[in-house]
Design goal:
Number of strands: 0
Helix content: over 70%
Strand content: under 5%
Mean pLDDT: 85
Structural class: mainly alpha
Low-confidence stretches: 47-51
Radius of gyration: 35 Å
Largest sheet: none
Length: 268
């Protein structure tokens, strides 16, 4: 007996035979649609990730910390432009966050290292307006940095006033000692050696031990040298060797050796 034909299989075969073949253009369009669909999904995922990173997934504290960590890493890697961009965005987006003072401090430092002194000074001024007396050390540091920037820009009168403010705000502190050292430096920059030496001697009087005093004593030697008072300079440098730790001896000893040779030449 002959086998009956399979009507279902025949229908499938018939339908398959009747399905029109796709043209090359249709295949290309379908592939383009698939590619763009995948890219759209990836773009949406990336956008969601960026949003999460920017906002801390709805948590401002997390967002600020993430941005600070990222900016600090860029700063350490010496990508100053990248660090500055992140610090600036953080300050703009979260101006009232408690950690914004850290971002402003780092932003000012990054500007300094880029040589953008005006922007650094402006940033420190903003920071100064944000700091309360509960952060006295940060406030003194900021005032000191403003003074240093003014000194670097040869605005000596304004710099010395800023250093005086530091001394009034934190008397007897290391900040006050450094401000007095900078005051001496500002006078020395202007070749007003008597006023420079007066500032250095005041520093030694107020803080007789430690590196700042040793540095001030060495600077007194420099001032005498600049006035061609060689014997006085040698005596000043000798005090560094006699009174202060060996860690600060090298420069003073080298200057004494050079100056003694100059004296020998003069006397011969």
């Amino acid at each position: 007996m002959a086998k009956e034909a399979n009507p279902k299989g025949a229908r499938k075969a018939h339908l398959k035979e009747e399905a029109p073949a796709l043209s090359d253009g249709q295949i290309i369009r379908r592939q383009i649609i698939i590619v763009f669909s995948v890219l759209a999904v990836l773009g949406a995922l990336y956008g969601a990730w960026l949003w999460g990173e920017d906002t801390g997934w709805g948590n401002p504290d997390r967002a600020v910390k993430m941005k600070l960590d990222k900016a600090n890493a860029a700063f350490v890697d010496r990508d100053l432009d990248g660090a500055i961009a992140i610090y600036e965005r953080l300050v703009q987006k979260y101006p009232n966050h408690p950690m914004v003072s850290q971002a402003l401090t780092q932003l000012g430092t990054a500007y300094e290292e880029k040589g953008q002194l005006d922007k650094a000074a402006a940033t420190y001024q903003i920071l100064l307006g944000e700091i309360g007396d509960d952060k006295a050390d940060l406030k003194a540091y900021t005032m000191l940095q403003i003074g240093k920037l003014l000194r670097q820009q040869a605005s000596y009168d304004a710099a010395i006033k800023e250093f005086d403010l530091v001394r009034s705000y934190k008397p007897g502190s290391d900040w006050a000692g450094e401000a007095l050292s900078e005051t001496g430096g500002a006078w020395q920059d202007q070749k007003d050696y008597p006023k420079a030496m007066a500032a250095y001697r005041q520093l030694i009087k107020e803080m007789p031990a430690g590196f700042l005093a040793a540095e001030a004593q060495s600077s007194i030697g420099e001032c005498y040298e600049a006035q061609d008072k060689i014997r006085d300079a040698i005596k000043a440098y000798q005090v560094v060797l006699d009174k202060y730790p060996s860690a600060v001896w090298d420069q003073a000893k080298a200057r004494i050796d050079i100056l003694k040779k100059r004296l020998d030449k003069k006397s011969s």
